[in-house]
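Aim 2, interim progress: modelling of the 3-acetylpyridine adenine dinucleotide-bound target.
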Amino acid sequence: MSALPAKVDVLIVGAGFSGLYQLYHLRKLGFNAKIFEAGGGIGGTWYWNCYPGSRVDTDATNYQISIDGLWQNWSYATRFPDFKELREYFAYIERTLDLGRDISLNTRVVAAEFEEAADEWVVRTQQGDIVRCRFLSFCTGFASKPYTPGFKGLDTFRGMLHHTATWPQTGVDLQNKRVAVIGTGASGVQVVQEAAPVAQQVTVFQRTPCTALPMGQRKLDAEDIQKMKEGQLKAFADRKKSYAGHSYDFTDRKMSDCTPEEQNELYDQLYARGGFYPLFAGFREIYTDEAANDWVYAMWRDKVRARIIDPWLQEKLAPAVKPYPFGTKRLPLEQNYYDLFNRPNVSLIDINENSIVQITPKGIQTADGVEHEFDIIVLATGFDAITGSMTQIGIRGTEGVTIFDKWTEYARTHLGLMTTNFPNMFFVYGTQGPTALSNGPTTVVMQGDWIVHCLQYMRANGLSRIHAKKEAEEKYTKLVNDLGDQGLWMKVRSWYTGANIPGKTIQHLNFSGGMGVYTEMCRENEVNGYEGFELT
Ligand code: N01
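Predicted structure of the complex, ligand included:
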Protein backbone atom coordinates (compact mmCIF):
# COMPACT_ATOMS: atom_id res chain seq x y z
CA MET A 1 0.00 0.00 0.00
CA SER A 2 1.38 3.38 -0.97
CA ALA A 3 1.75 6.26 1.52
CA LEU A 4 -0.80 8.99 0.86
CA PRO A 5 0.41 11.97 -1.17
CA ALA A 6 -0.29 15.53 0.02
CA LYS A 7 -1.54 16.61 -3.40
CA VAL A 8 -2.49 15.03 -6.73
CA ASP A 9 -4.01 16.23 -9.99
CA VAL A 10 -6.87 13.76 -9.91
CA LEU A 11 -8.12 11.79 -6.95
CA ILE A 12 -10.28 8.83 -7.91
CA VAL A 13 -12.50 7.31 -5.25
CA GLY A 14 -13.05 3.58 -5.75
CA ALA A 15 -11.08 0.77 -7.39
CA GLY A 16 -13.79 -0.96 -9.37
CA PHE A 17 -13.89 -1.00 -13.16
CA SER A 18 -14.47 2.75 -13.46
CA GLY A 19 -11.68 3.78 -11.14
CA LEU A 20 -9.13 1.47 -12.74
CA TYR A 21 -10.11 2.60 -16.22
CA GLN A 22 -9.67 6.28 -15.39
CA LEU A 23 -6.42 5.72 -13.51
CA TYR A 24 -4.94 3.86 -16.47
CA HIS A 25 -5.83 6.54 -19.02
CA LEU A 26 -5.05 9.57 -16.88
CA ARG A 27 -1.67 8.22 -15.91
CA LYS A 28 -0.88 7.47 -19.54
CA LEU A 29 -1.56 11.14 -20.32
CA GLY A 30 0.82 12.28 -17.62
CA PHE A 31 -1.69 13.27 -14.93
CA ASN A 32 -0.73 12.57 -11.38
CA ALA A 33 -3.71 10.38 -10.47
CA LYS A 34 -4.35 8.14 -7.47
CA ILE A 35 -7.13 5.87 -6.32
CA PHE A 36 -8.37 5.76 -2.74
CA GLU A 37 -10.28 2.56 -2.10
CA ALA A 38 -12.23 1.83 1.10
CA GLY A 39 -11.94 -1.93 0.74
CA GLY A 40 -9.01 -4.17 1.52
CA GLY A 41 -8.82 -5.22 -2.14
CA ILE A 42 -9.69 -3.91 -5.59
CA GLY A 43 -12.80 -4.90 -7.53
CA GLY A 44 -15.44 -2.64 -5.98
CA THR A 45 -18.68 -4.62 -5.87
CA TRP A 46 -16.73 -7.85 -6.22
CA TYR A 47 -14.62 -7.09 -3.20
CA TRP A 48 -17.57 -6.40 -0.90
CA ASN A 49 -20.14 -8.86 -2.26
CA CYS A 50 -18.44 -12.12 -1.39
CA TYR A 51 -21.54 -13.91 -0.11
CA PRO A 52 -22.15 -17.49 -1.28
CA GLY A 53 -23.27 -17.46 -4.90
CA SER A 54 -22.31 -13.85 -5.64
CA ARG A 55 -21.94 -13.68 -9.39
CA VAL A 56 -22.41 -11.21 -12.20
CA ASP A 57 -25.53 -11.28 -14.35
CA THR A 58 -23.83 -9.98 -17.49
CA ASP A 59 -22.27 -12.59 -19.72
CA ALA A 60 -18.53 -12.96 -20.10
CA THR A 61 -18.28 -11.26 -23.50
CA ASN A 62 -19.85 -8.12 -22.16
CA TYR A 63 -18.34 -8.07 -18.69
CA GLN A 64 -14.97 -6.88 -19.88
CA ILE A 65 -13.19 -3.59 -20.09
CA SER A 66 -12.34 -2.57 -23.63
CA ILE A 67 -8.65 -1.84 -23.25
CA ASP A 68 -6.41 -3.20 -25.97
CA GLY A 69 -3.97 -5.77 -24.78
CA LEU A 70 -6.31 -6.72 -21.94
CA TRP A 71 -9.13 -8.57 -23.62
CA GLN A 72 -6.89 -10.48 -26.02
CA ASN A 73 -5.14 -12.24 -23.15
CA TRP A 74 -7.99 -12.87 -20.76
CA SER A 75 -10.57 -15.65 -20.82
CA TYR A 76 -13.24 -16.32 -18.25
CA ALA A 77 -13.95 -19.94 -17.39
CA THR A 78 -17.73 -19.51 -17.05
CA ARG A 79 -20.37 -17.60 -18.94
CA PHE A 80 -21.47 -15.76 -15.77
CA PRO A 81 -18.36 -15.55 -13.57
CA ASP A 82 -18.64 -15.62 -9.79
CA PHE A 83 -16.93 -13.12 -7.50
CA LYS A 84 -13.84 -15.31 -7.17
CA GLU A 85 -13.31 -15.41 -10.92
CA LEU A 86 -14.05 -11.69 -11.15
CA ARG A 87 -11.43 -10.98 -8.51
CA GLU A 88 -8.94 -12.90 -10.64
CA TYR A 89 -9.90 -10.69 -13.58
CA PHE A 90 -9.33 -7.57 -11.50
CA ALA A 91 -5.96 -8.88 -10.30
CA TYR A 92 -5.07 -9.53 -13.94
CA ILE A 93 -6.02 -5.95 -14.90
CA GLU A 94 -4.02 -4.50 -12.01
CA ARG A 95 -0.99 -6.63 -12.87
CA THR A 96 -1.09 -6.06 -16.59
CA LEU A 97 -1.55 -2.31 -16.38
CA ASP A 98 0.70 -1.95 -13.33
CA LEU A 99 -1.97 0.00 -11.43
CA GLY A 100 -1.30 -1.14 -7.87
CA ARG A 101 1.39 1.44 -7.15
CA ASP A 102 -1.23 4.20 -7.44
CA ILE A 103 -3.95 2.58 -5.39
CA SER A 104 -4.32 3.06 -1.63
CA LEU A 105 -6.45 0.31 -0.15
CA ASN A 106 -8.25 0.56 3.20
CA THR A 107 -8.52 4.28 2.55
CA ARG A 108 -12.09 5.41 2.90
CA VAL A 109 -12.89 8.95 1.80
CA VAL A 110 -15.27 10.44 4.37
CA ALA A 111 -15.32 14.12 3.42
CA ALA A 112 -14.39 16.53 0.66
CA GLU A 113 -14.65 20.31 0.53
CA PHE A 114 -14.12 22.58 -2.47
CA GLU A 115 -11.77 25.46 -1.86
CA GLU A 116 -12.88 28.23 -4.21
CA ALA A 117 -9.73 30.35 -4.04
CA ALA A 118 -7.51 27.51 -5.20
CA ASP A 119 -9.98 25.58 -7.40
CA GLU A 120 -9.07 22.50 -5.41
CA TRP A 121 -10.75 19.82 -3.39
CA VAL A 122 -9.59 19.12 0.11
CA VAL A 123 -10.31 15.47 0.81
CA ARG A 124 -10.32 13.73 4.18
CA THR A 125 -9.98 10.02 4.81
CA GLN A 126 -11.36 8.00 7.69
CA GLN A 127 -7.87 7.82 9.20
CA GLY A 128 -7.74 11.61 9.22
CA ASP A 129 -5.36 12.12 6.30
CA ILE A 130 -5.88 15.25 4.21
CA VAL A 131 -5.16 15.24 0.49
CA ARG A 132 -5.64 18.08 -1.97
CA CYS A 133 -6.56 17.58 -5.61
CA ARG A 134 -7.65 19.70 -8.55
CA PHE A 135 -10.15 17.11 -9.75
CA LEU A 136 -12.17 14.57 -7.83
CA SER A 137 -13.76 11.59 -9.57
CA PHE A 138 -16.24 9.43 -7.69
CA CYS A 139 -16.10 5.90 -9.05
CA THR A 140 -18.18 4.60 -6.18
CA GLY A 141 -20.72 2.68 -8.24
CA PHE A 142 -24.43 2.49 -7.54
CA ALA A 143 -24.35 -0.03 -4.73
CA SER A 144 -21.86 1.00 -2.09
CA LYS A 145 -24.30 1.94 0.66
CA PRO A 146 -26.00 -1.25 1.92
CA TYR A 147 -29.51 -0.90 3.30
CA THR A 148 -30.51 -2.63 6.52
CA PRO A 149 -34.16 -2.22 7.49
CA GLY A 150 -34.71 -1.12 11.08
CA PHE A 151 -36.06 -4.43 12.35
CA LYS A 152 -36.72 -4.37 16.07
CA GLY A 153 -34.24 -6.48 18.02
CA LEU A 154 -31.64 -6.63 15.23
CA ASP A 155 -28.78 -6.46 17.73
CA THR A 156 -30.17 -9.16 19.98
CA PHE A 157 -29.67 -12.12 17.62
CA ARG A 158 -27.16 -14.59 19.04
CA GLY A 159 -26.41 -16.39 15.78
CA MET A 160 -24.67 -14.88 12.75
CA LEU A 161 -26.35 -11.99 10.97
CA HIS A 162 -24.83 -10.47 7.84
CA HIS A 163 -25.86 -8.17 5.03
CA THR A 164 -24.85 -9.65 1.69
CA ALA A 165 -22.80 -6.55 0.84
CA THR A 166 -20.74 -6.68 4.03
CA TRP A 167 -20.28 -10.42 4.08
CA PRO A 168 -17.18 -11.61 5.99
CA GLN A 169 -14.22 -11.98 3.65
CA THR A 170 -13.39 -15.22 5.41
CA GLY A 171 -16.75 -16.71 4.37
CA VAL A 172 -19.55 -18.30 6.40
CA ASP A 173 -20.17 -22.03 6.49
CA LEU A 174 -23.83 -22.76 5.68
CA GLN A 175 -23.47 -26.54 6.01
CA ASN A 176 -26.29 -28.02 8.11
CA LYS A 177 -27.31 -24.57 9.35
CA ARG A 178 -30.80 -23.14 9.70
CA VAL A 179 -30.66 -20.14 7.39
CA ALA A 180 -33.07 -17.21 7.01
CA VAL A 181 -32.83 -15.11 3.87
CA ILE A 182 -34.65 -11.77 4.00
CA GLY A 183 -35.09 -10.27 0.53
CA THR A 184 -35.58 -11.80 -2.89
CA GLY A 185 -33.61 -9.56 -5.24
CA ALA A 186 -30.52 -10.76 -7.12
CA SER A 187 -28.53 -11.20 -3.91
CA GLY A 188 -31.25 -13.17 -2.09
CA VAL A 189 -31.80 -15.48 -5.06
CA GLN A 190 -28.09 -16.23 -5.28
CA VAL A 191 -27.76 -17.00 -1.57
CA VAL A 192 -30.79 -19.29 -1.62
CA GLN A 193 -29.34 -21.25 -4.53
CA GLU A 194 -26.12 -21.91 -2.60
CA ALA A 195 -27.73 -22.49 0.78
CA ALA A 196 -30.53 -24.89 -0.20
CA PRO A 197 -28.35 -27.86 -1.20
CA VAL A 198 -26.19 -27.73 1.95
CA ALA A 199 -28.18 -26.11 4.74
CA GLN A 200 -30.46 -27.96 7.11
CA GLN A 201 -33.27 -25.50 6.45
CA VAL A 202 -33.66 -22.36 4.35
CA THR A 203 -36.51 -19.95 5.06
CA VAL A 204 -37.05 -17.20 2.54
CA PHE A 205 -38.80 -14.03 3.76
CA GLN A 206 -40.39 -12.52 0.68
CA ARG A 207 -42.05 -9.10 0.42
CA THR A 208 -42.32 -8.81 -3.36
CA PRO A 209 -41.83 -11.76 -5.72
CA CYS A 210 -38.94 -11.27 -8.09
CA THR A 211 -39.30 -12.22 -11.75
CA ALA A 212 -36.05 -14.08 -12.24
CA LEU A 213 -34.97 -15.19 -15.69
CA PRO A 214 -33.00 -18.35 -16.47
CA MET A 215 -29.28 -17.63 -16.42
CA GLY A 216 -28.13 -20.26 -18.87
CA GLN A 217 -24.94 -20.68 -16.89
CA ARG A 218 -22.26 -22.95 -18.32
CA LYS A 219 -18.55 -23.55 -18.43
CA LEU A 220 -16.86 -21.99 -21.45
CA ASP A 221 -14.88 -24.39 -23.60
CA ALA A 222 -12.07 -23.70 -26.07
CA GLU A 223 -14.52 -23.24 -28.92
CA ASP A 224 -16.60 -20.70 -26.95
CA ILE A 225 -13.48 -18.76 -26.09
CA GLN A 226 -12.23 -18.70 -29.65
CA LYS A 227 -15.62 -17.43 -30.85
CA MET A 228 -15.63 -14.77 -28.15
CA LYS A 229 -12.19 -13.56 -29.14
CA GLU A 230 -13.16 -13.40 -32.79
CA GLY A 231 -16.26 -11.39 -31.99
CA GLN A 232 -14.93 -9.27 -29.15
CA LEU A 233 -14.18 -6.07 -31.06
CA LYS A 234 -17.58 -6.17 -32.71
CA ALA A 235 -19.16 -6.78 -29.30
CA PHE A 236 -17.38 -3.72 -27.88
CA ALA A 237 -18.59 -1.62 -30.79
CA ASP A 238 -22.17 -2.94 -30.73
CA ARG A 239 -22.65 -2.51 -27.02
CA LYS A 240 -22.02 1.24 -27.20
CA LYS A 241 -24.94 1.58 -29.61
CA SER A 242 -27.39 -0.73 -27.88
CA TYR A 243 -30.08 0.15 -25.35
CA ALA A 244 -28.55 -1.58 -22.34
CA GLY A 245 -24.84 -1.67 -23.16
CA HIS A 246 -24.82 -5.32 -24.21
CA SER A 247 -23.68 -6.62 -27.56
CA TYR A 248 -27.31 -7.43 -28.43
CA ASP A 249 -30.30 -5.13 -28.67
CA PHE A 250 -34.08 -5.01 -28.99
CA THR A 251 -35.61 -6.52 -32.08
CA ASP A 252 -36.62 -4.02 -34.76
CA ARG A 253 -39.97 -5.77 -34.99
CA LYS A 254 -43.01 -4.36 -33.23
CA MET A 255 -44.99 -6.68 -31.06
CA SER A 256 -48.22 -5.47 -32.66
CA ASP A 257 -46.91 -6.52 -36.11
CA CYS A 258 -46.28 -10.10 -34.97
CA THR A 259 -48.74 -12.95 -34.70
CA PRO A 260 -49.03 -14.67 -31.30
CA GLU A 261 -47.08 -17.59 -32.80
CA GLU A 262 -44.27 -15.28 -33.88
CA GLN A 263 -44.19 -13.66 -30.46
CA ASN A 264 -43.98 -17.05 -28.77
CA GLU A 265 -41.31 -18.25 -31.14
CA LEU A 266 -39.15 -15.17 -30.53
CA TYR A 267 -39.41 -15.37 -26.75
CA ASP A 268 -38.83 -19.13 -26.69
CA GLN A 269 -35.58 -18.47 -28.53
CA LEU A 270 -34.63 -15.64 -26.17
CA TYR A 271 -35.32 -17.80 -23.11
CA ALA A 272 -33.22 -20.57 -24.58
CA ARG A 273 -30.26 -18.18 -24.91
CA GLY A 274 -30.40 -17.38 -21.18
CA GLY A 275 -29.32 -14.20 -19.42
CA PHE A 276 -30.95 -10.85 -20.17
CA TYR A 277 -31.92 -11.76 -23.74
CA PRO A 278 -35.68 -11.78 -22.98
CA LEU A 279 -35.27 -8.36 -21.41
CA PHE A 280 -33.06 -6.53 -23.88
CA ALA A 281 -33.35 -8.45 -27.15
CA GLY A 282 -37.14 -8.73 -27.33
CA PHE A 283 -39.78 -6.10 -27.97
CA ARG A 284 -38.88 -2.57 -26.91
CA GLU A 285 -42.48 -1.70 -26.08
CA ILE A 286 -42.64 -3.96 -23.05
CA TYR A 287 -41.22 -0.98 -21.12
CA THR A 288 -43.85 1.49 -22.26
CA ASP A 289 -46.97 -0.44 -23.22
CA GLU A 290 -48.84 -2.13 -20.39
CA ALA A 291 -50.56 -4.65 -22.69
CA ALA A 292 -47.25 -5.74 -24.22
CA ASN A 293 -45.85 -5.97 -20.72
CA ASP A 294 -48.81 -8.13 -19.62
CA TRP A 295 -48.04 -10.57 -22.42
CA VAL A 296 -44.36 -10.91 -21.49
CA TYR A 297 -45.26 -11.34 -17.84
CA ALA A 298 -47.82 -14.06 -18.61
CA MET A 299 -45.25 -15.98 -20.61
CA TRP A 300 -42.71 -15.75 -17.79
CA ARG A 301 -45.34 -16.70 -15.17
CA ASP A 302 -46.46 -19.82 -17.01
CA LYS A 303 -42.89 -21.03 -17.51
CA VAL A 304 -42.11 -20.56 -13.81
CA ARG A 305 -45.32 -22.04 -12.44
CA ALA A 306 -44.69 -25.20 -14.44
CA ARG A 307 -41.56 -25.76 -12.34
CA ILE A 308 -43.24 -25.43 -8.92
CA ILE A 309 -45.30 -28.29 -7.49
CA ASP A 310 -47.17 -26.62 -4.61
CA PRO A 311 -50.05 -24.36 -5.82
CA TRP A 312 -49.62 -21.96 -2.85
CA LEU A 313 -45.95 -21.51 -3.74
CA GLN A 314 -46.84 -21.11 -7.42
CA GLU A 315 -49.05 -18.20 -6.51
CA LYS A 316 -46.50 -16.64 -4.15
CA LEU A 317 -43.54 -16.92 -6.50
CA ALA A 318 -45.28 -16.28 -9.82
CA PRO A 319 -48.70 -14.73 -9.12
CA ALA A 320 -51.54 -15.21 -11.58
CA VAL A 321 -52.08 -11.44 -11.65
CA LYS A 322 -49.01 -9.41 -12.57
CA PRO A 323 -47.77 -7.75 -9.35
CA TYR A 324 -45.89 -4.95 -11.15
CA PRO A 325 -44.70 -4.27 -14.69
CA PHE A 326 -42.27 -6.93 -15.83
CA GLY A 327 -38.71 -5.67 -16.21
CA THR A 328 -39.18 -2.43 -14.26
CA LYS A 329 -37.62 -3.88 -11.12
CA ARG A 330 -34.18 -5.38 -11.70
CA LEU A 331 -34.56 -9.05 -12.64
CA PRO A 332 -32.25 -11.56 -11.03
CA LEU A 333 -30.90 -14.37 -13.15
CA GLU A 334 -31.48 -17.80 -11.65
CA GLN A 335 -30.10 -21.28 -12.17
CA ASN A 336 -32.52 -23.41 -10.14
CA TYR A 337 -34.18 -20.94 -7.78
CA TYR A 338 -37.77 -21.95 -8.46
CA ASP A 339 -37.07 -25.70 -8.45
CA LEU A 340 -35.48 -25.42 -5.01
CA PHE A 341 -38.84 -24.58 -3.46
CA ASN A 342 -39.89 -28.18 -4.24
CA ARG A 343 -37.31 -29.38 -1.70
CA PRO A 344 -38.49 -30.21 1.82
CA ASN A 345 -35.80 -28.01 3.40
CA VAL A 346 -36.81 -24.78 1.59
CA SER A 347 -39.82 -22.75 2.68
CA LEU A 348 -41.22 -19.31 2.04
CA ILE A 349 -42.87 -16.77 4.32
CA ASP A 350 -44.84 -14.01 2.64
CA ILE A 351 -44.23 -11.08 4.95
CA ASN A 352 -47.20 -9.22 3.50
CA GLU A 353 -49.41 -11.84 5.13
CA ASN A 354 -47.22 -12.63 8.08
CA SER A 355 -44.88 -9.76 8.80
CA ILE A 356 -41.56 -9.77 10.65
CA VAL A 357 -42.35 -8.46 14.14
CA GLN A 358 -38.85 -8.63 15.53
CA ILE A 359 -35.51 -10.32 15.48
CA THR A 360 -35.04 -12.28 18.69
CA PRO A 361 -31.94 -13.84 20.26
CA LYS A 362 -32.96 -17.14 18.63
CA GLY A 363 -34.32 -16.02 15.29
CA ILE A 364 -37.25 -14.17 13.76
CA GLN A 365 -40.68 -13.70 15.26
CA THR A 366 -43.51 -13.26 12.80
CA ALA A 367 -46.95 -11.70 13.27
CA ASP A 368 -48.62 -15.09 13.77
CA GLY A 369 -46.65 -15.34 17.04
CA VAL A 370 -44.25 -18.04 15.83
CA GLU A 371 -40.56 -17.64 16.68
CA HIS A 372 -38.57 -19.18 13.81
CA GLU A 373 -35.17 -20.31 15.06
CA PHE A 374 -32.06 -19.78 12.93
CA ASP A 375 -28.30 -20.11 13.07
CA ILE A 376 -27.73 -17.54 10.33
CA ILE A 377 -29.81 -14.56 9.16
CA VAL A 378 -28.91 -13.17 5.75
CA LEU A 379 -30.02 -9.61 5.03
CA ALA A 380 -30.33 -9.50 1.26
CA THR A 381 -32.15 -6.21 1.60
CA GLY A 382 -30.34 -4.19 -1.02
CA PHE A 383 -28.90 -0.71 -1.10
CA ASP A 384 -29.60 2.98 -0.73
CA ALA A 385 -28.66 2.79 -4.36
CA ILE A 386 -27.27 5.26 -6.89
CA THR A 387 -27.37 8.54 -4.89
CA GLY A 388 -26.48 6.81 -1.59
CA SER A 389 -22.96 5.98 -2.78
CA MET A 390 -22.16 9.70 -2.70
CA THR A 391 -24.61 11.18 -0.19
CA GLN A 392 -23.02 8.99 2.48
CA ILE A 393 -19.81 11.00 2.04
CA GLY A 394 -19.58 14.52 3.51
CA ILE A 395 -19.09 16.38 0.22
CA ARG A 396 -19.40 20.18 0.40
CA GLY A 397 -19.29 22.30 -2.73
CA THR A 398 -19.69 26.03 -3.33
CA GLU A 399 -22.12 28.25 -1.37
CA GLY A 400 -21.98 25.75 1.50
CA VAL A 401 -24.12 23.22 -0.38
CA THR A 402 -23.63 19.56 0.55
CA ILE A 403 -24.36 16.70 -1.81
CA PHE A 404 -26.46 15.11 0.91
CA ASP A 405 -28.76 18.13 1.22
CA LYS A 406 -28.95 18.73 -2.50
CA TRP A 407 -29.70 15.17 -3.60
CA THR A 408 -31.85 14.32 -0.59
CA GLU A 409 -34.17 17.09 -1.67
CA TYR A 410 -34.05 16.11 -5.37
CA ALA A 411 -31.11 14.63 -7.28
CA ARG A 412 -30.06 16.75 -10.26
CA THR A 413 -27.09 16.50 -12.60
CA HIS A 414 -25.88 17.58 -15.99
CA LEU A 415 -25.42 14.50 -18.19
CA GLY A 416 -25.15 12.23 -15.16
CA LEU A 417 -21.52 13.36 -14.90
CA MET A 418 -21.46 16.53 -12.80
CA THR A 419 -23.78 18.53 -10.55
CA THR A 420 -24.12 22.30 -10.01
CA ASN A 421 -22.22 23.73 -7.03
CA PHE A 422 -19.64 20.97 -7.17
CA PRO A 423 -16.95 22.18 -9.59
CA ASN A 424 -14.21 19.81 -10.73
CA MET A 425 -16.14 16.85 -9.32
CA PHE A 426 -17.20 14.01 -11.61
CA PHE A 427 -19.08 10.81 -10.98
CA VAL A 428 -19.52 7.64 -12.95
CA TYR A 429 -22.19 4.91 -13.09
CA GLY A 430 -24.32 6.94 -10.74
CA THR A 431 -27.09 9.50 -10.55
CA GLN A 432 -28.93 10.11 -13.84
CA GLY A 433 -26.50 8.09 -15.92
CA PRO A 434 -27.78 4.97 -17.75
CA THR A 435 -26.55 3.15 -14.59
CA ALA A 436 -29.13 0.54 -13.50
CA LEU A 437 -30.37 0.09 -17.04
CA SER A 438 -26.96 -0.51 -18.50
CA ASN A 439 -24.01 -2.84 -18.45
CA GLY A 440 -21.32 -1.50 -16.09
CA PRO A 441 -18.18 -1.85 -18.22
CA THR A 442 -19.85 -0.20 -21.23
CA THR A 443 -21.03 2.79 -19.21
CA VAL A 444 -17.88 3.38 -17.21
CA VAL A 445 -15.69 3.29 -20.31
CA MET A 446 -17.93 5.78 -22.09
CA GLN A 447 -18.22 8.14 -19.12
CA GLY A 448 -14.56 7.64 -18.24
CA ASP A 449 -13.55 8.68 -21.75
CA TRP A 450 -15.64 11.84 -21.47
CA ILE A 451 -13.92 12.76 -18.19
CA VAL A 452 -10.42 11.96 -19.41
CA HIS A 453 -10.93 13.95 -22.62
CA CYS A 454 -12.34 16.86 -20.64
CA LEU A 455 -9.31 16.99 -18.35
CA GLN A 456 -7.03 16.80 -21.37
CA TYR A 457 -8.92 19.68 -22.99
CA MET A 458 -8.71 21.77 -19.83
CA ARG A 459 -5.00 21.17 -19.46
CA ALA A 460 -4.37 22.03 -23.10
CA ASN A 461 -6.34 25.28 -22.69
CA GLY A 462 -4.91 26.32 -19.35
CA LEU A 463 -8.29 25.94 -17.57
CA SER A 464 -8.58 25.08 -13.91
CA ARG A 465 -12.31 24.87 -13.25
CA ILE A 466 -15.33 23.16 -14.79
CA HIS A 467 -18.78 23.67 -13.41
CA ALA A 468 -22.23 22.42 -14.46
CA LYS A 469 -24.56 25.34 -15.12
CA LYS A 470 -27.82 25.39 -13.21
CA GLU A 471 -30.00 25.77 -16.31
CA ALA A 472 -28.22 22.84 -18.01
CA GLU A 473 -28.79 20.70 -14.95
CA GLU A 474 -32.48 21.62 -14.90
CA LYS A 475 -32.83 20.83 -18.59
CA TYR A 476 -31.09 17.48 -18.31
CA THR A 477 -33.06 16.52 -15.21
CA LYS A 478 -36.27 17.30 -17.07
CA LEU A 479 -35.12 15.08 -19.92
CA VAL A 480 -34.39 12.22 -17.50
CA ASN A 481 -37.86 12.65 -15.99
CA ASP A 482 -39.67 12.94 -19.32
CA LEU A 483 -37.97 9.82 -20.67
CA GLY A 484 -38.64 7.98 -17.43
CA ASP A 485 -42.31 8.95 -17.51
CA GLN A 486 -42.67 7.32 -20.92
CA GLY A 487 -41.91 4.00 -19.25
CA LEU A 488 -43.55 2.00 -16.49
CA TRP A 489 -40.75 2.46 -13.92
CA MET A 490 -42.85 4.37 -11.38
CA LYS A 491 -45.35 1.55 -11.03
CA VAL A 492 -43.15 -0.49 -8.73
CA ARG A 493 -41.17 -0.02 -5.54
CA SER A 494 -37.53 -0.39 -6.55
CA TRP A 495 -34.10 1.07 -6.10
CA TYR A 496 -34.30 2.48 -9.66
CA THR A 497 -36.39 5.34 -8.27
CA GLY A 498 -35.29 5.37 -4.63
CA ALA A 499 -38.63 3.87 -3.59
CA ASN A 500 -36.97 0.97 -1.76
CA ILE A 501 -35.70 3.29 0.98
CA PRO A 502 -38.31 4.63 3.41
CA GLY A 503 -38.51 8.41 3.14
CA LYS A 504 -36.19 8.75 0.14
CA THR A 505 -37.34 11.13 -2.60
CA ILE A 506 -38.91 9.11 -5.38
CA GLN A 507 -37.64 10.18 -8.79
CA HIS A 508 -36.13 8.73 -11.94
CA LEU A 509 -32.52 8.10 -10.99
CA ASN A 510 -31.49 6.56 -14.33
CA PHE A 511 -31.31 7.93 -17.85
CA SER A 512 -33.70 5.58 -19.60
CA GLY A 513 -33.15 6.74 -23.17
CA GLY A 514 -30.65 3.95 -23.76
CA MET A 515 -26.89 3.61 -23.93
CA GLY A 516 -26.68 4.49 -27.62
CA VAL A 517 -28.58 7.75 -27.22
CA TYR A 518 -26.65 8.66 -24.08
CA THR A 519 -23.30 7.96 -25.72
CA GLU A 520 -24.23 10.17 -28.65
CA MET A 521 -25.35 13.00 -26.34
CA CYS A 522 -22.09 12.91 -24.41
CA ARG A 523 -20.04 12.73 -27.59
CA GLU A 524 -21.86 15.74 -29.05
CA ASN A 525 -21.38 17.62 -25.82
CA GLU A 526 -17.65 17.04 -26.00
CA VAL A 527 -17.42 17.97 -29.68
CA ASN A 528 -19.46 21.13 -29.10
CA GLY A 529 -17.12 22.39 -26.41
CA TYR A 530 -18.88 21.14 -23.31
CA GLU A 531 -22.24 22.86 -23.63
CA GLY A 532 -23.91 23.45 -20.27
CA PHE A 533 -20.58 23.50 -18.47
CA GLU A 534 -18.69 26.64 -17.54
CA LEU A 535 -14.95 26.29 -18.04
CA THR A 536 -12.60 28.90 -16.64
O1 N01 B 1 -31.15 -5.82 -3.60
P1 N01 B 1 -32.64 -5.56 -4.14
P2 N01 B 1 -30.10 -6.90 -4.13
N1 N01 B 1 -38.44 -6.25 4.81
O2 N01 B 1 -32.94 -4.14 -3.78
C1 N01 B 1 -36.29 -6.77 0.24
C2 N01 B 1 -27.08 -5.79 -8.17
N2 N01 B 1 -26.67 -7.15 -7.88
O3 N01 B 1 -28.90 -6.79 -3.26
O4 N01 B 1 -38.88 -5.95 -3.41
C3 N01 B 1 -38.36 -7.31 3.98
O5 N01 B 1 -32.83 -5.96 -5.53
C4 N01 B 1 -36.84 -6.21 -1.04
O6 N01 B 1 -38.24 -6.35 -1.06
P3 N01 B 1 -39.14 -5.42 -2.05
C5 N01 B 1 -28.27 -5.89 -9.09
O7 N01 B 1 -28.27 -4.81 -9.96
C6 N01 B 1 -26.28 -7.86 -8.92
O8 N01 B 1 -30.70 -8.20 -4.29
O9 N01 B 1 -38.61 -4.01 -1.88
N3 N01 B 1 -37.76 -7.32 2.79
C7 N01 B 1 -36.09 -7.06 -2.05
O10 N01 B 1 -36.68 -8.30 -2.21
C8 N01 B 1 -29.39 -5.80 -8.14
O11 N01 B 1 -30.60 -5.38 -8.66
C9 N01 B 1 -25.94 -9.14 -8.76
O12 N01 B 1 -40.50 -5.58 -1.57
C10 N01 B 1 -37.17 -6.17 2.44
C11 N01 B 1 -34.73 -7.22 -1.38
O13 N01 B 1 -34.92 -6.95 0.00
C12 N01 B 1 -28.85 -4.85 -7.10
O14 N01 B 1 -27.48 -5.14 -7.00
C13 N01 B 1 -25.98 -9.74 -7.53
C14 N01 B 1 -37.18 -5.03 3.25
C15 N01 B 1 -33.71 -6.26 -1.91
O15 N01 B 1 -33.50 -6.53 -3.25
C16 N01 B 1 -29.47 -5.01 -5.76
O16 N01 B 1 -29.75 -6.39 -5.53
C17 N01 B 1 -26.39 -9.00 -6.47
C18 N01 B 1 -37.86 -5.11 4.48
N4 N01 B 1 -37.95 -4.06 5.30
C19 N01 B 1 -26.74 -7.69 -6.66
N5 N01 B 1 -36.50 -4.06 2.62
C20 N01 B 1 -25.57 -9.84 -9.95
O17 N01 B 1 -24.83 -9.33 -10.76
C21 N01 B 1 -36.08 -4.58 1.46
N6 N01 B 1 -36.49 -5.85 1.34
C22 N01 B 1 -26.16 -11.12 -10.19
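Residues 55-57, 143, 149, 164, 182-188, 190, 205, 207-208, 330, 351, 380-383, 493, 495, 500 surround 3-acetylpyridine adenine dinucleotide (CB under 6 Å). The longest strand covers residues 130-138.
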